[in-house]
Write a sequence for this structure.
């Protein structure tokens, strides 16, 4: 069952290379996404059994992150099947830089997208840190060609940075894995392990100094991939240069995969009684990330880069929540769900803006609500969703994290986080409002928007809206189970 | 047995130093290939008690990949791009070597102080591995050519491989092979991107890749 989730998209990826008709290939993409989503739903309804020593299997945390990835992929696949048809063939000119480019072959794009889903499923299902490492590095390799879909110099630059920075970062995580084996081995060097359940079970028997060093390396390694400051430099470039459906998946699903790696390492530290150490590091990185991202959000010029910095900000919040522990860890998991849905929706809408206005510059987009009535309205709703205001689910999850941050003794953490959120909101609302309501540059009439370009974003925003009122009992139980599994608590 | 291991590790350090001081790209690729071949022997020498078939398989796979496949990939990229030597590196060769000496001394100091829970197969092991990791990182940061950066990534992986191979016997073979596969695909994809960089920019100096940045406030 679990393996099917990994293998199905991989087979579809092979098929995508072989199929010659664009229309059939797009149908295959959507069909595979739907099939994967159905399988994931079954895993949620009837959780598959996991053998204690199995390397691959879905526990509560894996199921949660698999669910996010699968939902986002379905929405994105529907959108991409439409937006790929919207892409011009032959040479085209980028309006912002004036460079002339062609697109990569669509077959390669679709195949990489499906391989990406496969590797993300493997990340979610990994219970062995070695397998997890292999899967996370594989996500990097599957996504690099996706970022370079528009074959122009700026995309190339973004791809190169992404590939090199993330590969080097992940290499450090491999070193962390080795140290973890040393921490767990017996005195003669035998019997080391990388199985998460086994490491958690050994708990206090692990060698503390080696475990600390291993956690630091894993945090830096997977933190690079997650976009924590100061290892975030590749992120705004890659997320803004990629085609919009890919940006949605990178921000909404891939960053979470790296977060899962960090959470696994954190749960091992917590079991070994080093939760204060690993939690302290997470809080420090998280706060720095939120603060730096807010500074960039205050003065954004490019709306896709703005969304990318917003992702960095929310990853900082997730790290902060995980580090604070207790109910904040539950809040971080809930926030991962909310943020993924909202951010993916926003990136899909940004794709509609880009298609209509042919520019990513905020100042050159205006009157969105008149020219793109549906996308413009959703864009406004998305502002409130991403800023964490009621009635959206992001409010509840951010509130849960911040409540813990304001706990007696660490009020400063809460103050810094809240101030950064306020700055980020001010910066983003200026950009969002200008794009939706501001003066239109030129007098373009209202456009008829295709259903496939609006509905996926609407559905994703609706998920966050519903979660603001009501969390289904199955999801609630899954979140609580995952939070306890990862060493946290529930509110 | 242990003498051979010591020799191998000394050789590893020497190849790192040559890489730091080498300006000819073809030469550097050859040295890295040699390093990869030597590392293939490491699993056999490090685990003194018996030649497990998994150690043989892993060593052979690694040697094949790093000794033959990577060099031919990189050499092809080199031919296509007409780049022969690293011109004006960000840090000069003499300076690189001097900094390298310092890093080597630090690696030894660190290796001597690291309280390994069990005796390492060779006292050279941790310093040599750390120094190789450092060399790889340094090549990525201090050189301009995209190919040299790929080479730096390979050397970094070599260092981690060396450290892991000896610190750890518990890493399952399947996972090791997965790691090797990932590294292979990574170098392959990087090679393709180097082609494209060459085509778009007419050269492979990555310091020209700096169009993407925040506007000045």
């Amino acid at each position: 069952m679990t393996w099917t989730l990994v293998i199905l998209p991989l087979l579809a990826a092979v098929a995508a290379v072989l199929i010659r008709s664009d229309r059939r290939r797009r149908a295959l993409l959507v069909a595979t996404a739907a099939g994967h989503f159905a399988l994931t739903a079954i895993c949620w309804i009837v959780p598959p059994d996991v053998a204690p020593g199995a390397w691959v299997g879905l526990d509560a945390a894996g199921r949660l992150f698999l669910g996010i990835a699968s939902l986002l992929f379905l929405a994105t696949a529907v959108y991409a099947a439409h937006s790929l048809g919207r892409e011009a063939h032959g040479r085209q000119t980028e309006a912002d830089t004036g460079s002339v480019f062609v697109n990569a072959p669509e077959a390669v794009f679709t195949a990489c997208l499906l391989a990406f889903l496969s590797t993300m499923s493997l990340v979610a299902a990994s219970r062995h840190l070695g397998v997890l490492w292999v899967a996370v590095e594989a996500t990097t390799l599957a996504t690099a060609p996706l970022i370079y879909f528009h074959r122009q110099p700026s995309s190339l630059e973004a791809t190169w940075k992404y590939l090199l920075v993330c590969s080097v970062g992940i290499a450090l995580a491999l070193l962390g894995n080795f140290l973890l084996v040393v921490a767990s081995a017996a005195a003669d060097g035998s019997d080391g392990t990388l199985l998460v359940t086994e490491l958690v079970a050994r708990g206090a028997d692990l060698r503390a100094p080696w475990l600390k060093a291993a956690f630091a390396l894993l945090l830096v390694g997977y933190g690079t991939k997650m976009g924590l400051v100061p290892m975030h430099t590749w992120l705004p470039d890659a997320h803004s240069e990629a085609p919009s459906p890919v940006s949605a998946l990178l921000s909404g699903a891939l960053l979470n995969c790296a977060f899962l790696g960090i959470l696994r390492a954190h749960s091992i530290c917590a079991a070994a009684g080093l939760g204060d150490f690993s939690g302290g590091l997470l809080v420090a990185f998280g706060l720095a990330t939120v603060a730096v991202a807010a500074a960039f959000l205050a003065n954004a010029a490019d709306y896709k880069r703005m969304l990318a910095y917003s992702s960095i900000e929310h990853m900082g919040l997730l790290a902060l929540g995980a580090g604070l522990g207790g109910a904040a860890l539950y809040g971080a998991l809930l926030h991962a769900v909310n943020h993924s849905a909202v951010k993916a929706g926003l990136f899909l809408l940004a794709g509609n803006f880009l298609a209509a206005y042919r520019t990513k510059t905020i100042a050159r987009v205006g009157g969105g609500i008149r020219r793109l009535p549906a996308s413009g309205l959703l864009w406004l709703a998305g502002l409130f969703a991403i800023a964490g205001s009621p009635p959206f689910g992001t409010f509840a999850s951010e509130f849960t994290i911040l409540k813990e941050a304001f706990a007696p003794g660490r009020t400063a953490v809460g103050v810094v986080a809240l101030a950064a959120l306020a700055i980020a909101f001010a910066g983003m609302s200026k950009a969002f409002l200008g794009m939706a309501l501001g003066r239109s540059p030129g007098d373009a009439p209202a456009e008829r928007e295709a259903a496939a370009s609006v509905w996926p974003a609407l559905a994703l925003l609706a998920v966050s809206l519903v979660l603001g009122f009501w969390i289904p009992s199955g999801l609630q139980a899954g979140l609580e189970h995952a939070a306890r599994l990862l060493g946290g608590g529930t509110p | 047995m242990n003498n051979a291991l010591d020799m191998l590790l000394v050789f590893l350090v020497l190849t790192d130093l040559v890489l730091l001081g080498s300006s000819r790209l073809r030469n550097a690729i050859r040295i890295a290939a040699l390093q990869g071949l030597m590392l293939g022997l490491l699993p056999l020498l490090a685990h003194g008690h018996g030649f497990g078939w998994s150690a043989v398989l892993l060593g052979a796979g690694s040697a094949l990949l790093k000794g033959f496949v990577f060099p031919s990939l990189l050499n092809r990229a080199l031919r296509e791009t007409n780049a022969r030597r690293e011109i004006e590196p960000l840090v000069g060769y003499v300076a690189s070597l001097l900094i390298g000496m310092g890093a080597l001394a630090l690696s030894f100091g660190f290796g001597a102080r690291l309280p390994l829970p069990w005796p390492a197969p060779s006292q050279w092991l941790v310093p040599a591995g750390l120094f190789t990791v450092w060399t790889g990182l340094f090549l990525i940061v201090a050189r301009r050519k995209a190919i040299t950066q790929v080479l730096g990534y390979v050397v970094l992986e070599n260092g981690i491989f060396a450290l892991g191979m000896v610190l750890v016997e518990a890493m399952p073979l399947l996972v090791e092979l997965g790691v090797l596969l990932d590294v292979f695909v990574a170098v392959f994809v990087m090679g393709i991107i180097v082609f494209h960089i060459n085509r778009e920019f007419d050269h492979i100096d990555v310091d020209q890749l700096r169009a993407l940045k925040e506007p000045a406030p």
